[in-house]
From TrEMBL:
It comes from the Bacteria. Gene3D superfamilies: NAD(P)-binding Rossmann-like Domain (3.40.50.720). One of its GO terms (molecular function) is pteridine reductase activity. This is Pteridine reductase.
Length: 245
């Protein structure tokens, strides 16, 4: 009997990560939910998915800012069996205006948005090669046009964009590597991070004049997971935001 395909989604307890997990699960994937602090939400989602299909989901905790946790997460998955899909979704996002940036800011934003995705991809490559699987990286429209007051975040996402293109070459032909560049999907949870005026400015530069849904990103992830002849592609799901300078 064939086993269901298996996906690891980082930062999967809430928001976009949880939506990706639910979509992939409905499509028949078994799910490994990674979380850092959101244990309550991760366990609730795991239990819901297991009620729908018993034994189809489990959780792993790791702080992706810490290399020892990245190594432990990688080892746990390699010991647990096959892997068909890695979705690098976990991300830190907050402003770092020039003149205020310190080493801790740099490390936090680069580690979560770039370093962890690279080392997870490298460490899990043997499993993905064996399954002829794929990697999907959650990038950002601001990887190409930096977001004002967010230079470190923008730099990290630009690195993730280049990592996607580079790994598509390095890991071919066995492993496909693609990215999704979301536009305005969910406003940041910290209200002070993005004012109402700033939100309206974003919408005024979005052709569809509204924010998207987490399900828009999840549907794109499912497409890329199943698109067997697509690699090295970054799919903008941004309501037309990227057409503005």
């Amino acid at each position: 009997m064939n086993q269901p395909p298996r996906a690891l989604i980082t930062g999967a307890a809430r928001r976009i990560g949880a939506s990706i997990a639910r979509h992939l699960h409905r499509a028949g994937y078994d799910i490994i939910l990674h979380y850092r602090h959101s244990s309550t939400e991760a366990c609730a989602l795991r239990d819901a998915l297991n009620r729908a299909r018993p034994g189809s989901c489990f959780c792993l905790q790791a702080d992706l800012d810490q290399m020892e946790d990245v190594a432990r997460l990688t080892a746990d998955i390699r010991h647990s069996g096959a892997l068909d899909l890695l979705v690098n979704n976990a991300s830190s996002f907050y402003p770092t205006p020039i003149g205020s940036v310190n080493q801790a800011d740099w490390d936090k934003l680069v580690n979560s948005n770039l370093r962890a995705p690279f080392f997870l991809s490298q460490g899990l490559h043997p499993l993905l090669k064996q399954s002829r699987g794929s990697i999907i990286n959650l990038i950002d429209v601001h990887a190409e046009r930096g977001l004002s007051d967010y230079p470190v975040y923008s730099i990290a996402k630009a690195g993730l964009r280049m990592m996607t293109l580079t790994l598509a070459r390095e890991l071919a032909p066995e492993v496909r590597v693609n990215g999704i560049a979301p536009g305005p999907i969910l406003w940041p949870e910290a209200e002070a991070t993005l004012s109402e005026e700033a939100q309206q400015d974003v919408l005024s530069k979005t052709l569809l004049a509204r924010i998207g849904r987490p399900d828009d990103i999840a549907e794109a992830a499912l497409y890329l997971a199943q698109a067997g002849y697509v690699t090295g592609h970054i799919l903008a799901v941004d309501g037309g935001r990227s057409l503005y300078g």
